[in-house]
Request: fold
Amino acid sequence: MKQMQFPKKGTGRDALMKELDEMSVNDVDWESGRLFSLIYNPGRDVEEVACNAYYRFLMANGLSPFAFPSLLTMETEVISMVADLFHGDEAVGSMTTGGTESILMAVKSARDWAKENLQVTGTPELVMPVTAHPAFNKAAHYLGLKAVVVPVDDGFRADPKKMKDAITDNTVFMVGTAVTYPHGVIDPMEGLSKIALERNIWLHTDACLGGFMIPFLKKGGHPIPPFDFELSGVKSISADIHKYGYMPKGASTVMYRDKELRKYQIFAYADWPGGVYGTSSVSGARTGGAIAAAWSVMRYLGEEGYIRLAGKAMSATKKLIDGINNIPDLYVLGRPDATVFAFGSDTVNVYDLQDKMKQRNWLVESQHLPASIHVTVSPVHEDLVDEFLSDLREAVQEAAQVEEGSRSEEAVIYGVMGTLPDRSQAWELAINYLNDLYTLK
Ligand SMILES: *Cc1c(COP(=O)(O)O)cnc(C)c1O
Reply:
């Protein structure tokens, strides 16, 4: 394999910065709001506060609360503010680098709690609706649990009866999601909480996506069912600050009902010649930037600011949903509860539609099972709704004309992945694809 030679000499600062600029010309122009995933765009002012705070603490290392007491203060204050948001009088938690790490931590804590508190003899099981995030499959895979995946109801919400039926003597963990990624709905957490209490299993609310949106929608007068520590069956919650908390990447929270439960998350090793070593989450060294930025954005916006931004995103979402349902070939899937939704079609191929939108400089994600287009609405989208809908109407007309043979490669691959009857083949394809992608060509 031909590797890139490690540079013998350094490159000048200006030349490097220029190269970085040139490299990013093919990246999506997210600042303009034409992206509907990946970045949660609150507008320039918030971004500036976050980035300045991040930069100020970028070199600081969150590994040592003794060297950087400022980070310890900020992290515990962030966690305490989040506990307040989620009705967690006794709640504690940790900041992590992202939703995946938060979920890993919650599953690990539940597994170790179960070892002490439940009589499980077989492989411990994690019961999840099919719409729960793959980070739970990943956590099960990493931590030696069996993921039991349960179908959802016609409205794409977890079905408490089906979830209950999936519980066995080995079940230790159950998850419901407060704003699912694929269809933007809130699972019936109240029903799941009852089951968790009855069967004495750990219930986790995955509010990675909705955690910093739905509490503010509720405070702004929108109907939001209970999902947090208000429900006594909920033992842990994950909520990403780097989504609707409007932070640059690298900030999430994992919250526990009380301090006894968080104990199962913490790792310490006292016999290392390098000193007594302990961390609360997966990461060892971690940047102080994410902690300082989270603390600053929450303080900068306050409840008032978050309610205002949630209102903007929600108003854009309502207009988009109405507009899409008024296009004869399209329909919105289920009844979305917040600012994330998906739409599909029985007449046009959505992967062609995605291509046609891309030609108009709109980047929307596609999904499968069932095929649909995914939309994550940010506050900045409020001003772009009319243009988006008018381009979408045109794109539908064009997508309807695409012939089998002229379909783009991306559209074909996605279509195939969703319809391969042997799912293990699709998994294998995805692994090989990534293994090749991250190899220098
Ligand atoms: C984004 C997301 C996650 C995973 O978070 P990362 O920050 O991408 O690791 C988990 N659950 C839901 C519902 C999400 O939307």
